Amino acid sequence: MSKLKSDFxxxxxxxxxxxxxxxxxxxxxxxxxxxxxxxxxxREEIALWFDYFTWAAVYYGFHFxxxxxxxxxxxxxxxxxxxxxQSRNLLWGLPAQEQRQLEKQVKKILxxxxxxxxxxxxx
Length: 123
Fold this sequence. Notes:
Strand content: under 5%
Order of helices and strands: HHHHHH
Largest sheet: none
Structural class: mainly alpha
Low-confidence stretches: none
């Protein structure tokens, strides 16, 4: 019975690892799309900040470029949230509720079998 339990826990660990990779891929996608768009549209303001940095210049640069500011805020916010989530899991371990959710998801994947998209990734 111990072998079955350790095999199941290794599948849960693989699913957790896939979750971490998926979140970082999402962050990378955000920075390569929204982040590049925001930085490109703020390039003149950024050049001004390098020459004459004042908080007023930063305020007006963000204030008058609303969409790039939202894109940049979204990228920074999602990055910080994933960093905090992963740091919490590394420092204090996975919370019991998230552990149960992962176990439930692994059981669902195993029940569905090879037709599930994540089947080959947790085997």
